[in-house]
Amino acid sequence: MTHRGPHAMLFTFHNITHPLWLADEEQIHLVRDWLLGHPRGEDLID
Amino acid sequence: MKSKTIRVPHGTGEIGLHYLEWGSPKAERIAVCAHGISRNAYDFRWLAEGLAEAGWRVLSFDMVGRGKSEWLEDPQGYTIPNYVQHMVYAMSKLGLEDVDWIGTSMGGLIGMGLAVSNAPLRRLVLNDVGPFISSNALAGIAAAVASPPPLVSVAEVSGYLKGRFTPYGPVTNEQWEEIAANSVRKERNGGLYLHYDPGISAPLDGITPVDVDLWGLYDRIQVPVMALRGAVSRVLDQGTAEE
């Protein structure tokens, strides 16, 4: 989902308050792929 | 993982900033991680390893007053503008260019400050923070970091952190143990304390929290932004996130 600002993307993780640790594989891959310029199609992560 | 320290100007003197580093110093991609208000550099251990495996050099800093960084003599200096100045100097001194900034909560606010300060950022990841923070959220944060309890054992620290942070995303038991072991300092009397200066919330003491609106600053950011959010976040509300 695109948002206000240059190339802003929002990713929401369900059922948690705050993805504080970014310690699980799903979260690590999400950040890595976005930094590489390859955001995935979905913006809601269970 | 390497443990290093850099001295940065602060006031009329200087202060030691500790950081952890992963990956090759010659890596073409550079990521800098910055933690939340009462956390430390070790929080990014797993993400940093994942990025280092993919070719990044990753540096994760303990902001002053946290982790293994030095504490300020005057706790009124625990402010976002000071953290931004520390990081501007540190990145310049270390020769970091085209930096992917990954900031959790307070670390994201520092990243926003850097992004509008001509700092050499390439991309900006804002983890559970955005350009609007409600007064209620701020009050909750200030209350949570004030007066950290004395703790007797690492197991007790682990229990305390689990009680406070369990809703904050998937963490294995092994990871909890590591987080706990890296969240404490040992005093000469043998007691364990959380790793941060209780004075870090001093600038908020006695002040009635008000909403913080940084949309004017956010709109000046020119680099791509990724916002991460927990669906039941108390800091980055749904309206702000969706805007």
Report on this structure.
The complex is a heterodimer of chains A (46) and B (243). Chain A contains 1 helix and 3 strands; from the N terminus they run ββαβ. Chain A is an alpha+beta fold and 46 residues long. Chain A has one domain. Chain B has 243 residues and is an alpha/beta fold. Chain B has a domain at 2-133 and 214-231: Rossmann fold. In chain B, the strands form 3 sheets. A 7-stranded mixed sheet of chain B has the order 1-2-4-3-5-6-11. Chain B is globular and about 45 Å long. Chain A binds chain B through residues 1, 3-25, 27-32, 34-36, 39, and chain B through 29, 31, 36, 39, 43-47, 50-51, 54, 56, 100, 102, 104-105, 123, 125, 127-128, 165, 167-171, 175, 179, 218-219, 221-235, 241-243. β2 of chain A pairs parallel with β11 (225-230) of chain B.
In short:
Chain A contains 1 helix and 3 strands, in the order ββαβ. Chain A has one helix at 25-35, and strands at 2-3, 8-13, 44-45.
Within CATH, the superfamily of the domain at 2-133 and 214-231 in chain B carries the name: Alpha/Beta hydrolase fold, catalytic domain
Query: What is the multimeric organization of the chains shown?
Result: heterodimer
Any guess at the CATH architecture of the domain at 2-133 and 214-231 in chain B? 3-Layer(aba) Sandwich
Helix content estimate of chain A: 10-25%
Largest sheet of chain A: 3 strands, mixed
List low-pLDDT spans of chain A.
41-46
Distance from N terminus to C terminus of chain B (CA atoms, Å) equals 38 Å
What would the principal axes of the Cα set say about the shape of chain B? globular
- How much strand content do the residues of chain A show? 15-25%
- Most extensive interface: A-B, 34 and 49 residues
Cα-atom radius of gyration of chain B: 17 Å
Number of domains of chain A: 1
Q: How much β-strand is present in the residues of chain B?
A: 15-25%
Average pLDDT value of chain B?
A: 89
* Count of DSSP H/I helices of chain A: 1
What is the strand arrangement across the widest sheet of chain A? 1-2-3
Question: Approximately how much helix is present in the residues of chain B?
Answer: 25-40%
What is the number of helical segments of chain B per DSSP (H or I, 4+ residues)? 8
Q: What structural category arises from helix and sheet content of chain B? A: alpha/beta
SSE series of chain A: EEHE
